[in-house]
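Subject: Protein record for review, amino acid sequence with backbone structure tokens
Category: Structural biology, sequence-to-fold work with a learned token vocabulary.
Format: Residues in single-letter code; tokens as whole numbers, each standing for a residue.
Body of memo: The sequence and its backbone structure tokens, given next.
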Amino acid sequence: MCKNKTVGGSITSPPLTTYEKRVYTVDEIRSILGISRTAAYDLVKQGCFHCIRVGRNYRISKESFDRWLGFQREVQDDE
């Protein structure tokens, strides 16, 4: 149960905890890369980065995707 504090007669809520994002959705990958939804799903199914399935949805490891994206940029820079 949340405990609220009273400060000067008004009730304050406990501070919110922020979490670092650890996974992306396919729609987030699509948006980041500027590609179609079908193309984003193709990358997921090709195993370009680590992902898991949660019910009917995919969750892509942020660390794995960011590493893959960095590698793609390095390859383009070398060309």
In short: The first helix runs from residue 26 to 33.
